[in-house]
Amino acid sequence: MTFTINYSKLKDEYKDFSPYFETHRQSLNLLFETLLNQQDSNAINSYLSQAPNQNIMNEIKQKLVYSSTLCFFRAFDLFLAYITLEDKKFKTWSEVTGYYSKFYIIKAINSLLLRGYEVIDYDKRGQLVDSRRDGSFYFAFDNNGFNLYNSTKIEYQQLQKDPQTNQRYGSHQLWWRLLETITDIKGIEKFSRLNYLLDQNWTNPKLRNQINYSLEYLEGFQELDWFDANLKGHHSWNSKDNRDFTSMKNFFKNTDPEDIDMGDYYTDLRVYLWESIMSYLEIYKDVLGTNRIFRIENINYLMQAHETDKAVPEASKNMKKMINELFGIEIEEDPFS
Q1: Which of 29, 146, 172, 249 could bond to 205 as cystine, CB 3.0-4.6 Å?
Q2: In this structure, how many other beta carbons lie within 10 angstroms of the beta carbon of residue 224?
Q3: Is residue 161 within 8 Å of 168, Cβ to Cβ?
Q4: With contact defined as beta carbons under 8 Å apart, do 327 and 290 qualify?
């Protein structure tokens, strides 16, 4: 088990904290770089545990929430782009775009839950107090408080390698591995949508590489597999699915009960991306509530810009409705209208 903590304790860490707007929007990476230029990670851990400085912790939380919210908006924008590309029948690029939507929602949820991975730029490592060990590190708030775990720590070593093959993870796989640590947050399972966010079957780094680069039949660019035959007649150019993916009930709303195939729902990437997004928003709302940097009107703008009401009209309407309901926005005050 890694980074174990009760969800209630993690939520309490946000008590009396409210993120604020930043003009310069300094990144978390730059904050850690500044701290590590003054002390090594062990000294920082010791300082925070022996004499907790609320100002420093609030600054760390500020950067994490900013990073989390930014990553959410990237994930949401990419999700809408995925819908647009699917509608225009750019199947391969839609799937790759869907992958990046999931990648950013993974970054978003980890940052929100006060954990992550950072790498200091190589050209800046010479200024670190311990440039040999602190060049990359994990960090987390768990039962041991808030700590940085550099390359000498067992937590770092466990998260860096695949336990089955002992091979080091790639830069993206690291985040998918970090996602798995969320299951060690006791009580977080009360969010029923979380299983969709944790899912790694329908999009993952290996599948992304296969779709993007493989020249094998039925792997990369499947819509072009029949380039040497009747490309126009290939099913992937003719299929279009406008079903409402926002819930199972909505998905099969216009389907005869005898014709329902549950596999259609549970293999639809739109379902997993949407449920991952809603899972994040539910947890975000629970720990932070409404705040100045999470602007729902910007969600509205993105949906308008991507014209989701044209590509998936029913789903678009229900997406707006569900987000409004989550954040307690009355219909007459609906910022989406």
Answers
A1: 172
A2: 14
A3: yes
A4: yes
